[in-house]
Amino acid sequence: MAKKKKASKQKAKKKVVKKAAPKKRAVFIAKKKPIVEKKLAAPAPVAEQKTADAEEGGASQKHSGLQALRGMKDILPKEDQYWYALLDHAIRLAQFYEFGWIQTPLLEDARLYVRSIGKGTDIVEKEMYVFEDRDLERVALRPEGTAGVVRAYIQHGMLNLPQPVKMWYFASMFRHERPQKGRYREHHQIGFEVFGDPSPSADAQLIAIAYTLLSDLGIPVEVRINSIGMPDERARYIVELTGYYRAKRSYLCEDCKKRLNRNPLRLLDCKEEGCKPLRDEAPQIVDWLSESSKKFFMELLEDLDELQVPYSLDPFLVRGLDYYSHTVFEFYTKEQDAETAQSALGGGGRYDLLVEQLGGRPTSAVGFGVGMERIVTELKKRPDEFAQKPPTVFLAHLGQGARRKALRLLQDLHAEGMRVGFNLAKTSLKAQLDIADKQKVIYTLILGQKEMMDGTIIVRDMESGAQEIVDVTKIVPFLKKKL
Predict the structure, then answer these.
(1) CA separation for the pair 447, 40 (Å, rounded)
(2) 183 within domain boundaries
(3) Do residue 34 and residue 14 come from a single domain?
(4) Among 35, 276, 359, 372, which has the highest number of CB atoms less than 10 A from its own CB?
């Protein structure tokens, strides 16, 4: 009887286990649902996806929580020395050449970009973030910097200021394109713009500023330049170009077949291997330029020679924006293949018709933009050159009262321009001295309860271990003398 009861209990337990198992599996499947949806939304090939994920800063790693969106990248503190160096060089150049800083809104009326960049461009048709806000206004995230600056120039009456008006900016740009090496859906640009100077010298100076910015950062740079003339000259050239490509339409990639009708100049910008031989045999725009356009271009090249800025002529360079006229140029690192779009560090050109096109008076204008992420990628190849200078002094404290005094002393030392290491979260003197030793500081200042009462501070020589007591009110001149 007892054996039967025992057997029946074991059967009951087995039944319970069997019933419980499906519940666990149901919970597991529910957790996996978002991952399945994410896979369906990502049609990129596996190898391609791995590259994009690596570029996005580790999106391929498994995380249960929220992550940055695909194509968006966090800029982490470990990279700050490269960004600081880039911005510092840009600011100093802007101040020397008397460019005023401007920051336009991230969000603009979508019509601004459609009218300026052009309906047939890839940016407007495929890449721009456009949506209706809660007021049912059609707005767009900024895909490029020039259009917003032009809008601000008109809106704030800068046309009435003494010309030229020179402005610069650094800002986020957004384009919904496939993430890949050196290309993100959010990226940052530094841009310089000049309004009201019709001379080729303005183009030359801007090219020289960009060249100097990159060269001073240790990046060997090559300038590629072309003239695309004025609209009437381009119109005649486009007729010839379209005729040439129509005869070879069957050899074109699918994108170029669309460009043939919508934006024929972009045929020259195609990076597909099958289209390159066709481009090499295509008519060149220089043969359709007027004498005045040729004269403008020649004067620009003479200015660049005078400035000793090396350049090469690229008859197929057209840039991807409709608003350019006369000069267009791009910057490449000498080590990279300029045939690859991702290798360009930046570019720009003249846009003499854009101010009037957006509602202002006819105004000459020229500008350039460089991609900050791409420049930082180049700087990371030489980390030792951009390593931040370590502090020469470390401030250690013992006790709550000393920590409070240390806060004030840090302010005083900062006001004197001293680089000081500290860690207010640590309470152990040994732990703080270990940090000071790792930072290779020359002196450590030790502030404890006794020193607070005496109005003194201990100065420890980290190499010899020798210590001396100094009046806390005289610590700044003492350190200046020692250092």
Answers:
(1) 60
(2) yes
(3) yes
(4) 372
Q: Which of 188, 203, 131, 226 is nearest to 351 (CA)?
A: 203
Phi and psi, residue 181, nearest 5°:
-55, 125
Q: What is the CATH number of the domain that holds 408?
A: 3.40.50.800
Amino acid at 99: F
Q: Tokens standing for 318? A: 């057209």
Tens of pLDDT along 116-161? 887 666 677 778 889 999 999 999 999 999 999 999 999 999 999 9
At 421 the three-state DSSP class reads: strand
Helix or strand or coil: residue 455? coil
Query: Which tokens go with 63?
Result: 């995380």
Residue whose token pair is 């240390």: 406
Residue 110 structure tokens:
């979508």
Q: What is the largest CA-CA distance in the chain?
A: 115
Same domain, 377 and 297: yes
Burial of 279 (0-12, 13-18, 19+ CB in 10 A): middle
Structure letter (DSSP) for residue 251: G
Same domain? For 225 and 313 the reply is yes
Collect contacts of 254-261 with beta carbons under 8 A, ≥24 apart: 259/120
Q: Which residue segment(s) compose the domain that 459 sits in?
A: 393-482
Do 211 and 356 fall within a single domain? Answer: yes
118 and 263 Cβ atoms separated by less than 8 Å: yes
Phi-psi region of 415 (alpha: psi -120 to 50; beta: other; left: phi over 0): alpha
Q: What pLDDT, in 10s, does the model give residues 179-236?
A: 777 678 999 999 999 999 999 999 999 999 999 999 999 999 999 999 999 989 988 9
